[in-house]
Structure formats: C-alpha cells, structure tokens
# Entry
Amino acid sequence: MKILVLGSGAREHAIVSALLAEDAGHEIVAAPGNAGLAQQVETVKIDASDPKLVAEFAADNAFQLVVIGPEAPLVAGVADRVRRAGIPVFGPDRAAAALEGSKAFAKRIMSEAKVPTGGAVQATTVEEVEAAFAEFGAPYVVKADGLAAGKGVIVTDDREAALDHARFYLQQGGVLVEEFLDGQEVSLFLLADGHDVLPLSPAQDFKRAGDGDTGPNTGGMGAYSPLPWLAERWESEADFVDEVVDTIALPTIRRLEDEGTPFVGLLYCGLIITEQGIRVIEFNARFGDPETQVVLPRLETPLSGLLLAAATGALGRLPYPAFSPDAAVTVVLASEGYPESPVTGREITGLDEVRDVAIAHAATALVDGRFVATGGRVLSVVARGADFAAARAKAYAALEVIGLEGSHYRRDIAEKVAR
Ligand code: AMP
Ligand code: GLY
# Structure
C-alpha cells in the first residue's frame, strides 16, 4: 500500500516502524518526518497542517491511505480536506477532533453519552475559578481549554500557583477547573471508524518530568505496556478493556455519530482508576506519545489493515487485534531545560552503538553527518523483554551509551512492575 504518514515525532517513527515490520512492501512517505524517519523512509518537507497542500500532495502522488499523527493537522482540518479528495484517511475531521481540541466540547459529549468523568466547571473569570476551587477543594486542577501539548494543566495543592496558572490561561480564552481524581492512570487507544471501535492494549504514561512523579507536567517522559496490575481488580486485562469499550468508547463514538460528527481515527482514552471506578480525565484524537512506542511493537495484527479498515468504515467486520505478551518499556531522553525552555542544537552521540533497543526519533536533525537535538523530547528508547526487568535493563543500558550534554530522563519508568 502507498501510505503517507503526517507528523515528525517519535510517535510517527513508531507508526512507520510498525508498518515496515509488516514486511508487506508498503511504500511509505513521512511528512515532514525527522532525521530518524529519513533513515527508513522517504521524507518530504511539507507543512503537515496545511489542508490544501496535504490533500493535493496526497492526490497527486496517489496515496491509498493518509495517517495523521499529531493533533495540530486534525484541528486545522487536514482530514476533512483529504477525505473530500476521496482518499482514505486515518484521523478525525476537525469537528470530531474537538474532542481533544476543546475540553468543554469533550465534557458535553461525555455528559450526553453518560460517560463517567470527574466534575468540571468552565470559567472565564478569576471569580468563577475561585468559586470552583471552593466547590472542589484541594488539590486544585486547572486546564487550558484548548491544545496545550500536555502543558496547559496544573495539579497542585498550592492555591496561589493554581490561581496564577488560571489567570494566564484565562487571558488565552478560558479554563476548566476540575475535581481531583485519585488513582492509577491508564491510556487506552481505540481504533474508530465512526461507528465501531477496536481496542489496542493499555499502557501507562509518566507525565511528570522527575522521578517519583515530581516536577512539572510534560508531554510524557516514558511508558510501559501491558499493565499487569489491572488483573488485580478485573479478572484480566481483557475484562478491563471490555468495560472501557462498553461504558466509555462506544457511547462516545455513537454520540458523535448521532451528532453528525463521526469520529474516524484514534480515540485515546486518558483514564484514572479511582476507588469508585474508571473515570475519563481526557480524550485525545490521536495516538499518544510516548505510549504508542510501547503499544505498537507488541501489536501482532498488521497495522496497515487496521488503519485502512478504520478509514473505510470496516472495523465492525474485524476481530480484536492480537498482542504479544512481551513487556515493552520506553524512556524519553529530554534536552536540558525541558519542559520549560529546552536547549537545542547539541550533538547526540552513541546512537550507532546501542544494542537490543529501537530508537524512535522525535526532535533530531542530521547536520554534517551528526545527529543534533532540535527540541525538548529528543528521542524514545524502546525495549522489549520477556518481563519488565529485562526490558528495563535493555532500555537503561542503551541510555548509558547515548550522549547529549545536559540531557535528562526518568530512572523509574516501569520500576513498580519490574521484579
Ligand atoms: P490532561 O492534559 O488532561 O491529560 O492532564 C495532564 C495530566 O494531569 C494527567 O495525565 C493527570 O496526571 C493530571 N490530571 C489531569 N486532570 C486530572 C484530574 N481531574 N485529577 C487528577 N489528575 C489530573
Ligand atoms: N502521552 C500523552 C499524550 O500523548 O497526550
């Protein structure tokens, strides 16, 4: 199949690697891609968020499937335009992508679909924020109502810090104040074709910058999959997944279908398992990063067939995708200063010397034959093993070999599931 993958991160590198692993002779182009992707497939420097440009490029080059990685092209309406050009596209139209782009829209859909989520109040003034703080109490959760790449959220006991955060984002449009939900976090991805869904295997993301969940929120510093501890509360991981499909994913997808905004693409359910049950903290309209780096290597069903079936409304005819029981761990290497103000332009060394891991590039460029870091989250080291101890050992051994001045990574990814 001739496939165009839009995006430039480690997530897109993982998607392309999964497509190549099928060994099906796919012709893959990544746009704009990154230095790692350029070593595996053709990359084309076009603006992935320009709907007209992408649709013309896809049509002119006879792509049979367009896969949209990041949220920005979705919210810009790239999927709408490509779909209108008659090309199957994995990624929701702009209206359905509001599930991620507008937290207020997501909360309305959840309420109408009777999907379990925490209490939330939309605020446009400081007074409304203070009233919501009084209602919910500490810890305070304040979110920007719009795309903020995981950085628009604060969760803190410090009322003044929460108010400062709210004041900043009030000037940009509005905020959501939420009830604090306590429990383990789970990311569950589901392929959706507008009517049906197929779940992938759950993963856990590490959102805070520092070990022990300290420091600021980031886009994600590491992840692992599967989640063995789910079987302590459910009979099995499959029972947990079924509950999410029945009570969260399908009601949401059907509600969007009924509204005339069918959701075609990846429904990312960000969940917290509270004592009272599963609660949605957020939906995203795309694969998660870095969770994709640990979910897709375990996928045994060919990815291209699943993405095409979603893009063409044919998921209802397929069985659930199959996953290897292997443990997968990914650790993100971040530049000095990430997430506040990453230092870029420094050389990355040792990439040719690592063994037994896959490197998913994110913010890298090749300059005069050397890799340099061009952003905050530079790359993901991905390792698999028969158990988490083995996978972690490989990932952290590789990180010892990779050099990037001032860089940092978390040392506790998947620690609690390794023994
Ligand atoms: P979000 O961008 O909505 O995924 O939020 C980023 C992170 O903040 C989540 O992954 C959680 O760790 C935390 N968070 C968000 N909302 C809540 C909430 N209502 N209760 C507790 N933690 C939250
Ligand atoms: N890892 C969190 C996200 O992709 O939004």
Remarks:
- The chain has four domains: 2-94, 121-178, 183-317, 327-418.
